[in-house]
Specification:
single chain, mainly alpha, Cytochrome Bc1 Complex, Chain D, domain 2, globular
Length: about 140
């Protein structure tokens, strides 16, 4: 049953336009730090974009000393997976896995606690590209 759920979730992944997986890691760090989104009901304030809240569950950058441990550490995410040049075809599998996991985490683990950022429209394509850059860009503090 889990494999069926994962296969159905994988079918919902919308791949980035033009195959452009990475955005700006600096914007990705802002999203990772931002806990805004889907939790406040006060509509009197001007609407703002959702954050990704990554640090609630993951260690990402060594500069951040406060992080959750529900999810695995993402420190050195790209470096440990051999992504030294995201344009290199050898990195394609990691790019696709990471994008798919961010888009719909249930495509890889039916009982995942991770938000389905793209599928649930919590983040848009550009925001997911920025998170991808945070995790995979060799210049990102995540991979230093």
């Amino acid at each position: 049953m889990a494999r069926q759920i994962e296969a159905e979730a994988a079918a919902t992944v919308r791949w980035p336009a033009g195959g452009q997986y990475l955005g700006d890691w600096r914007e990705g760090e802002k999203l990772a730090q931002n806990g805004r989104g889907m939790t406040w009901t006060d509509t009197s304030a001007a609407p703002s974009a959702n954050g990704a809240q990554c640090y609630n569950c993951h260690q990402i950058s060594p500069a951040e000393v406060s992080f959750g441990t529900i999810g695995p550490s993402l420190y050195n995410y790209g470096k440990l997976r051999g992504v030294t040049n995201p344009a290199d075809p050898a990195s394609a599998a990691i790019l696709q896995y990471t994008w798919g996991k961010l888009w719909n985490s249930k495509a890889y683990a039916a009982c995942s606690n991770m938000p389905r950022f793209g599928h649930a429209k919590l983040l848009n394509e550009a925001q997911i590209q920025h998170l991808m850059a945070l995790l995979l860009d060799p210049k990102s503090p995540v991979n230093q």
